[in-house]
Amino acid sequence: MAGLSLAGCSSGPTSAGSSGASGNTITLWTHNAGNPAELAADQKIVTAFNASQSKYKVNVQAFPQASYNQSVVAAAAAGKLPCVLDIDGPTVPDWAWAKYLAPLDLGSSIANQLPSTVGKWNNKVYAVGYYDVALAMFARKSVLKDADIRIPTVTNPWTGTEFNAALAALKKTGKWAAPLDLGTSGTGEWWTYAYSPMLQSFGGDLINRTDYQSADGALNGPAAVNWATWMRGLVTQGIIAQKSGADANADLINNKTAIEYSGSWAAAPLSKALGSDLAVIPAVNFGAGPKIGGGSWEWGMTNSCGNKAAATAYLKFSLQPQYQTGVAVAAGTIPADQSPASLKLDPSYAPGGTNEIFAQMSSKFAELRPPTPAYPFISTTFTTAAQNILAGADPKSTLDQAVQSINANIKTNNGYK
User: To 5 degrees, how large is the angle CA 87–CA 91–CA 97?
Assistant: First the structure.
């Protein structure tokens, strides 16, 4: 999936010396070493910036995504961070708190950004992304029609009751061992990105967002327990597999499943295979409104950068519509810049375009993962709890333990203030 990884939680603020610059030449790091299309789009921006003026120069260093965050943390400890780097959206508050990142002054350059693509901590902007992705479900229209199931829309999504009835109807046909693929074979950040929006739609959350100091009541209250009980029920009723297949797209195309839970990145291959029979299904409203995860990879400037003027100039240059949209097209994602100029470059996300629904969902339903330095710990704790619940652990006691662990982590770090 585009743009998801997880950083380890920093143990506390650090200081670092000046780095990442040699005079007016600065270094840029990216996680895209294993993604040639997106890396080429990033390099195109750098090449254009270097050619646009003679004062500054940017050099690119690419890392594999699997080792990227560890490389950043190690470089920070050694005082060897670059000037510009990309950051997974939910990690921004952690790295800002740890003083890896410097606040950005980008002015009107971010006026047209999707809100979920602007990374903030303590009301300051620390990062900005070129794209976002949107969670959705996919099915064959013909399958839903045969089962007399309404195809929902962004303005009229399924309710929880409708969704459960649709799943029961599909199961009753006996055509699928497990009609719904929730992506339970996914690893790492996928679990929080994919399933915490459902928790939020039930009325729970990963943490209390009034002050981000406790998860009590949010992650273990009645709404959260209802969500967890429902998730476990999908397994016991044979609606989902405790561990889904390795290729969700192939399973839907080959009719091994009836509904696939994935994201906007799956639209192109599924549309190619299923054509006009493909239905894109918005997030379900379980009571507190439809929710999807928001925030993907973003770009920031390090606190230790030895030439912040050069880094800022590059970031402002890179936010021009043609460059943001170029990266989004290469990554198969929603352009973060929603200006007419950007949508003209990729009309598929404009009104009436084939991908408009994903832009609509990102704008209307996206919920940022908690903007707190505690997030990486929260995410791993939630993932473990959710996996245990699907495996049969008691929902209430499992969530209570998760809350205790999260609260202890926050207390240890003095609330990450």
Answer: 110
Residue with tokens 């043609």: 322
Contact at 8 Å (CB) between 228 and 398?
A: yes
Q: Please, which pLDDT band fits residue 28 given cuts at 50, 70 and 90? A: very high
Both structure tokens of 199: 């928790």
Could you read off the pLDDT of 352-385 as tens digits, one per residue? 999 999 999 999 999 999 999 999 999 999 999 9
How far, in whole angstroms, is CA 145 from its chain's centroid? 31
CB 90 within 8 A of CB 372: no
Q: Which SS3 state, helix, strand or coil, does residue 88 take?
A: strand
Distance in angstroms (rounded) separating the CA atoms of residues 241 and 244: 5
Q: Which residue do the tokens 């209307």 mark?
A: 364
Q: How does pLDDT run across 155-171, given as a tens digit for each residue?
A: 999 999 999 999 999 99
How far apart, in whole angstroms, are the C-alpha atoms of residue 31 and residue 89? 13
Residues 6 or more apart whose CB falls under 8 angstroms from that of 313 comprise 49, 53, 56
Please state the separation of Cα 152 from the chain's center in Å. 23
- Residue at 176: amino acid letter: W
Q: Are 169 and 158 in contact (CB under 8 A)?
A: no
Non-local CB neighbours of 342 within 8 Å, separated by 6+ positions = 112, 321, 324, 325, 335
* Amino acid residing at 60: V
Structural tokens at position 403: 């809350």
Query: Considering the chain, what is the average pLDDT of its residues?
Result: 94
Tell whether the model's pLDDT for residue 1 goes beyond 90: no
* Cα–Cα distance for residue pair 381/378, rounded to 1 Å: 5
Decide if 88 contacts 131 (C-beta within 8 A).
no
Query: What angle do the packed helices 308-318 and 321-331 form, to 10 degrees?
Result: 70
- Joined together, the tokens standing for residue 73 give 């943390």
Alpha carbon distance 371, 140 (integer Å): 37
Q: How confident is the model at residue 9 (pLDDT cuts 50, 70, 90)?
A: very low
Q: H-type helices in 173-285, by residue range?
A: 190-202, 222-236, 248-253, 267-274
Distance CA 244, CA 259 (A): 12
Helix pair 375-390, 222-236: axis angle to 10 deg: 40
User: For residue 285, what is the DSSP state?
Assistant: B
Kindly tell me the number of DSSP H helices and DSSP E strands found in the chain. 15, 16
Tokens for 110? 């971010």
Give the Cα-Cα-Cα angle 229, 379, 324 (nearest 5 degrees): 120
